[in-house]
Write a structure and sequence with these properties.
292 residues; alpha/beta; Nucleotidyltransferase, domain 5; 2 domains; five-stranded mixed sheet; globular; binds beta-D-glucopyranose
């Protein structure tokens, strides 16, 4: 009996198998298949991982990078252009014959960090994933905020620059065009975020200048969210966001943008404890909840 969770990213899909105590038994990664091929791929990952751990999968949770309705239809995934109004939950549950939950990837990461990670015991928390795009999970008054359709937390598409950079969502000036992994690469003239972080540690002053500028964009969006939610803690996760170096720069930039602390006590800014597996773990936890 094993709960499987799959986090579908812009470039790769990560599957984890969770033990009954919530620990990760095993994991498997594949490059993300194009278009609707992603459904087949998630089903294959679930079957392969269950086989590998030698136990039957009892439930499947899937985190998708886009707007997912409460009944598991993926309406729009900006970084998976062919995925539109796809009834993913229905397709997977009829194929696999087990209970399936499909939710937003950042919501899944937020659930994992809230239940088992850096936001444990916090009633008001913001979990932000920074990778190909920016995702957000909003924990408000001890509950995950989902909104009317289930689309709450599309904060990566808050406009931070009127008429700014074109976003794959179809609009211009979205926060994720200035504060995601791809935005950092653009700021750094094609150098990857990973490389910039490495150079910062090696005290390269140009890399430090670039990261400072990038962090101020991250902080700008965070401060908007702080004004909306008033969180106790901000958890930074995702491929780029989980970096301790980035956390340091972002906390600093947020401190500079917020009013003095005696007028507005700043939230804590911490890195995700479950690292890059948070989304898949959260998806598995949500799938498991259905059968408990
Ligand atoms: C999508 C979000 C997703 C985020 C991270 C954004 O472009 O709109 O739904 O959570 O990327 O993958």
């Amino acid at each position: 009996m094993v709960a499987i969770g799959v986090d579908v990213g812009g470039t790769k899909c990560l599957a984890v198998a969770l033990n009954s105590d919530g620990s990760v038994l095993d994991s498997l990664t594949l490059p993300t298949a194009a278009g609707v091929g992603v459904v087949e791929e998630v089903a294959d990952l679930c079957v392969a991982l269950a086989l590998r751990v030698g136990q039957a999968a009892t439930s499947l949770g899937v985190g998708m990078p886009g707007t997912v309705s409460r009944d598991g239809v993926v309406y729009l995934a900006p970084h998976l252009p062919e995925v539109r109004q796809m009834p993913m939950r229905e397709l997977l549950s009829s194929q696999l014959g087990i209970p399936v939950v499909v939710d937003n990837d950042a919501t899944c990461a937020g659930v994992a960090e809230w239940k088992n990670g850096a936001a444990r015991n916090c009633d008001n928390a913001l979990v932000i994933t920074i990778g190909t795009g920016i995702g957000a999970a909003l924990i408000a008054n001890g509950k995950v905020m989902r909104g009317h359709h289930g689309f709450a937390g599309e904060s990566g598409h808050h406009i931070v620059m009127h008429g700014g950079e074109v976003c794959p969502c179809g609009r211009r000036g979205c926060w994720e065009q200035y504060a995601s992994g791809s935005a950092l690469r653009r700021l750094a003239n094609g150098v990857s975020g990973e490389e910039i972080l490495l150079r910062v540690v090696q005290e390269d002053t140009e890399a430090q200048r670039i990261l400072e500028e990038f962090a101020s964009w991250v902080a700008l969006g965070l401060f908007n969210l702080v004004n909306t939610l008033d969180p106790q803690v901000i958890v930074l996760g995702g491929g780029l966001g989980s970096s301790a170096v980035l956390r340091h720069f972002v906390a600093d930039a947020l401190g500079k943008q917020m009013p003095p602390s005696e007028l507005r006590p700043p939230p804590l800014v911490v890195t995700a404890q479950l690292g890059h597996e948070a989304g898949a773990i959260g998806a598995a936890l949500l799938g498991k909840e259905v059968i408990e």
